[in-house]
Write a structure and sequence with these properties.
By secondary structure, the protein is α+β, with helices and mostly antiparallel strands. It has two domains: 12-81; 144-325 and 347-355, Double Stranded RNA Binding Domain (2-Layer Sandwich), CATH 3.30.160.360. It contains ten helices and eight strands. A six-stranded antiparallel beta sheet has the order 2-3-4-5-6-7. It has a two-stranded parallel ribbon with strand order 1-8. A hairpin with a 2-residue loop joins strand 2 and strand 3 (166-170). The radius of gyration is 36 Å and the shape is elongated. InterPro entries: FYrich_C, FYrich_N, INO80E_N, TBRG1. It comes from Apolygus lucorum (Small green plant bug). One of its GO terms (cellular component) is nucleus. Pfam families: FYRC, FYRN, INO80E.
Amino acid sequence: MFNSSGLKGSPSFIVRRQAKQNLFSIEKLRNEKYKKKYKTIKRQVRELIFENASLCDQIAQFQESTLLLIDERNFLLKKLQQYHPIPDPEVFRTNVIHNNHHDLLSKKAVLKKRTERTVSDSSTNDSTKMSKHAKKPQAARKKKIVKAIPLDSSGKPIFPISLGDFTVHSLGEVCEKPEYHTEDLIFPVGYCSTRVYGSLKDPEKQCMYTCKVMDGGLGPKFEIVTDTDLDVPIVSTSIDSCHSMLLSLINRCLGMEIVNTKGRGADFFGISHPTIHHLIQASPGVRKCKGYVWTKFEVNPSYEYTPDDEASLSYTALLRSISFSKSHMDPGIKAEPPSGEYHEDHTAALRSLLMS
């Protein structure tokens, strides 16, 4: 019989103990190896994250510089056209085609004089000419692509509908009177949308504008009101003139012509946006609008709209135009001091412009 001390000192016990120590050392070396790999991967991931962030910053700087160059190009092109008007290429192409067509007709007339034809031949030629120059049917409209919006259980859109810079709160009701629609658009009574744009008091500060279509009897009335001057709305019977009045007030507040005052009311209200146009066309009562021509739409859930980057519609583009105009202003030309009307408060100035 062996005692306990003899078992511990036996060769088999020593071999087992050495085997366990070897396994432990191998496991320890393996863990250290994996730990080094983990630290290396972690360091590489951190470096990639920093590199990605720096690349994103560089892309943002390039995009900003590109937009500034585009604004500068448009500014220089506008100045160039003031001194050297450039003919419209479409008009030039139309004139060339007209001249070529006129030369071709004159050659045909000479050939007719040289050849002797009967009266019957001449009558048939006249009939063939009339058939050739017959008015062609109107070309089919291009199909517009719209993005799917969330609907409730009854199939109606869920309000508010946010589409970039503007939000639609109500589509209103379609009126069948001829003045409440055109061949391309419908102006439903009760339509309401909001848009972020430059303030009338300080165009470099943003504010919220509410756009409405109201019942004006024979024709609609269009209203634009800012949240800073709720008592002084801009009202007109034309959607484009309503928007043009707003742009005139923006230029008047800045003291220089920053934005083009040509009205784009349907775009500012959001009525011409393909998604809103599609929803209005699907409203009840549209089939009674006799002067309206239906537009074909195609729903594409993955379609993304490109926002309109015009200073008359986008607050961001307005800020760029203001900063660009200030940076390119001639320092030798001093701005004229404001007249007495400019010293009046903003409410009185707005009322005087609307009454003029």
